[in-house]
Design brief:
388 residues, 6 helices
């Protein structure tokens, strides 16, 4: 199947919210082949070949980083690369003698390489991965935006037959978009069900030193200098971790050291230590893997939905580009048709005037021909406005 190739003035803007294709072009032929047309003159240098598209490398954020050799590495934040707002070099390779030779394949390739809607949808994949990693730790998920950006100005339904440029500028999202749940969360029923203990180990430690000095007011407990001094040292350690079957493992080691200069104290310093190990298993609410892994299942489903939403965003963007491309081809061809119609109407008017002068047609026929010419002139102006 062949597509028309356009020679167009350099007025291309593809980095709008979706893609806005503003081009002034001249189709060489509706049956032209897909090959690039020859340069206008022999002195024009050959156009460079388009460079390879920029590779997109996605990181699987659903998998934690290894703990070796840094033990705390799985729990540290990750650096996310800044998005690239530079246009690809493909547009330069299509430039010849101040004009762009643009086929429909080139328009689609430019949109896929430079479209910000696709970059936005690609971030949703990373967000879904990170949400799955969050669920694996036992925390509640935050949800993922699965809305599709559409209705780009110039790329809406109807094309030139409707209102051109009446879109919302890439702000229309589907029902799964951000802000549809409580406090901006996509889902609002995550709090229903039994509590989930953190699947990641929780290590808690506290070191405390208290020094207390008070004046002695009791004659039965004298103190050197009339000041009762009491020092308390405590060192506590705790470990807690939950498991998918509703089991919770808790261990605690508490230590206390108390020293005082009171004469009535029989033992100083006083040392106290205790160790506690506890295993808790839910028997009714929260028993088994189904209630305790519900967030993980939801996060996995959200990841698949995000993948489908990304593919739908690509399809939507390509569909809008194709609509704008063929709408522009229609607009240019419509100008040619209206010009030919006006030429035919003008010739019919001249013939009617000559025939009216010799009396072969009534004068009303001239008025009708003048009305047709005025209508065709109006249609030509509208067609030229749509094609500009």
């Amino acid at each position: 199947m062949s597509f028309p190739r356009l020679i167009c003035a350099f007025r291309l803007a593809v980095r709008h919210s979706s893609v806005v294709l503003l081009i002034a072009a001249v189709p060489l032929s509706m049956a032209a082949q897909q090959s690039v047309p020859a340069a206008p003159s022999q002195s024009t240098p050959s156009a460079p070949q388009p460079e390879q598209a920029r590779a997109v490398h996605l990181t699987d954020y659903s998998q934690p980083r290894p703990a070796f050799p840094h033990m705390l590495q799985p729990y540290l934040p990750r650096e996310l690369a800044q998005p690239s707002f530079a246009n690809s070099s493909r547009i330069d390779s299509l430039m010849r003698d101040g004009k762009i030779y643009l086929s429909i394949d080139d328009a689609i390739a430019l949109a896929l390489e430079n479209n910000l809607d696709l970059d936005l949808a690609r971030y949703n994949l990373n967000i879904a991965d990170a949400d799955l990693l969050r669920a694996k730790s036992g925390a509640s998920i935050l949800g993922v935006n699965t809305g599709i950006v559409q209705n780009t100005p110039g790329g809406g339904v109807g094309g030139l037959g409707g209102t051109v440029g009446s879109g919302t500028g890439g702000t229309t999202v589907a029902a799964g978009g951000a802000g549809t749940g409580t406090l901006g969360l996509v889902s609002s029923t995550l709090g229903i069900g039994s509590n989930i203990t953190s699947f990641d180990p929780l290590l808690i430690s506290s070191l405390q030193l208290d020094k207390n000095e008070t004046a002695s007011t009791n004659v039965f407990s004298p103190a050197p200098g009339g000041i009762v001094a009491q020092n308390t040292y405590s060192a506590n350690f705790a470990y807690t971790q939950g498991f998918h079957w509703g089991t919770t493992l808790t261990a605690g080691f508490n230590n206390t050291h108390l020293a005082t200069n009171s004469t009535v104290s029989l033992l100083t310093p006083q040392l106290g230590s205790n160790f506690q190990f506890r295993i808790t298993q839910n028997l009714l609410q929260g028993f088994g893997s189904l209630p305790n892994m519900r967030f993980i299942r939801i996060a996995k489903n959200n990841r698949e939905i995000s993948d489908v939403a990304f593919r739908l965003q690509v399809i939507t963007t390509v569909d809008q580009i194709e609509n704008m491309y063929w709408d522009f081809v229609y607009a240019f061809e419509n100008v040619r048709v209206q010009q030919e119609s006006l030429t035919y109407a003008q010739k019919a008017l001249d013939d009617a005037k000559r025939q009216a002068q010799v009396g072969t047609v009534p004068p009303i026929q001239v008025v009708s021909a003048q009305s047709t010419v005025a209508t065709d002139q109006q249609n030509l102006i509208v067609a030229q406005n749509n094609g500009s």
